[in-house]
């Protein structure tokens, strides 16, 4: 009897966003108004926590458009679940940052930026996005109490510009830089031919970054996390960065298996996104129990051990898992 341990979760609070990025995995946009209620989100978090989840990624759409964001973070913090947030930075305000800090948000607030200037960034995230994102980064740096970093998606549009973007992020006060290989999902599927890069091209970007910055580690070889802190950061931030190093290695790199739930209630095994059910129709506890199904385990093994579009080399089946225990 094999065991599989859920460690992380991902919640899409809303499908509404201020922009409509070409590579958006959830096809979010200003036109989509779908929200998960605060009460439902708190119930989901409590259920995931009972199943061993210790870290939950809060995304969207744009999570800062959800009025219950601070309440959700406070509920996570109270129940021993570490929050991380991904935002485009457009609607960050000092008052919201203070409320998030009081709710328990300390590190891993990631701002999405896909180029070192307006010209490159706009080919992916739309015009007039660059300046708004930089202003959000500036406000985070001025606030100074939450350790933050940048999410950067490598694709054809910005190939060769990861290092310049990381240096810009470092100058603006970022502590880490997530270099993510473009994966054609959601809206990204429609732009796959124009945006996809090869594994070799991605490795070039990673190698270039590694010459200037120290990697925290890798996440299934399609996300690398780099330490881009300035030597001039305060002692408080250095202490926070030390916590972040442990946070990344423990939760995002070594133990990535988790559950992903979008703003329509769709539940999937993450990161391979194997469909498990919809919590609008079935209780989440029952959906999670479906992880014991043999076909789910076979799909996960195929993904993990070499069949996921050549992201990593085949290593052969490590185990047969006819039965699963959720810790």
TrEMBL record:
Its cofactor is [4Fe-4S] cluster. Residues 1-222 form the Radical SAM core domain. InterPro entries: Aldolase_TIM (IPR013785), Elp3/MiaA/NifB-like_rSAM (IPR006638), Radical_SAM_PqqE_MftC-like (IPR050377), rSAM (IPR007197), rSAM_sf (IPR058240). Keywords: Iron, Iron-sulfur, Metal-binding, S-adenosyl-L-methionine. Coiled coil: none annotated. Pfam families: Radical_SAM (PF04055). Signal peptide: none annotated. One of its GO terms (molecular function) is catalytic activity. This is Radical SAM protein.
């Amino acid at each position: 009897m094999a065991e599989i341990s859920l460690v992380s979760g991902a919640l899409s609070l809303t499908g509404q966003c201020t922009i409509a990025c070409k590579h958006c995995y959830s096809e979010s946009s200003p036109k989509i108004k779908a929200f998960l209620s605060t009460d439902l989100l708190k119930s989901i978090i409590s259920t995931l926590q009972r199943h061993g989840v210790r870290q939950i990624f809060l995304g969207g759409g744009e999570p800062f458009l959800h009025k219950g964001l601070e309440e959700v973070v406070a509920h996570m913090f109270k129940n021993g679940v570490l929050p991380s947030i991904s935002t485009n930075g457009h609607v960050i305000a000092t008052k919201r940052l203070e409320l998030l800090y009081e709710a328990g948000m300390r590190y891993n607030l990631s701002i999405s930026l896909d180029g070192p200037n307006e010209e490159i960034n706009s080919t992916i995230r739309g015009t007039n996005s660059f300046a708004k994102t930089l202003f959000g980064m500036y406000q985070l740096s001025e606030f100074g109490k939450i350790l933050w970093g940048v999410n950067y998606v490598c694709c054809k549009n910005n190939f060769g510009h990861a290092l310049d973007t990381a240096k810009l992020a470092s100058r603006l006060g970022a502590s880490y830089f997530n270099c993510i290989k473009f994966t054609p999902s959601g809206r990204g599927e429609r732009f796959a031919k124009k945006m996809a890069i090869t594994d070799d091209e991605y490795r070039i970007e990673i190698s270039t970054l590694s010459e200037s910055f120290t990697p925290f580690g890798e996440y299934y070889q399609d996300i690398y996390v780099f330490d881009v802190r300035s030597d001039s950061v305060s002692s408080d931030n250095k202490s926070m960065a030390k916590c972040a190093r442990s946070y990344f290695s423990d939760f995002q790199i070594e133990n990535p298996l988790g559950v992903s739930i979008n703003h329509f209630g769709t539940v999937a095994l993450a990161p391979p996104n194997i469909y498990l059910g919809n919590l609008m129709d079935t209780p989440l506890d029952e959906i999670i129990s479906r992880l014991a199904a043999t076909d789910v385990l076979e799909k996960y093994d195929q993904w993990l051990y070499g069949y996921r579009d050549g992201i990593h080399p085949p290593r052969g089946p490590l185990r047969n898992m006819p039965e699963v225990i959720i810790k």
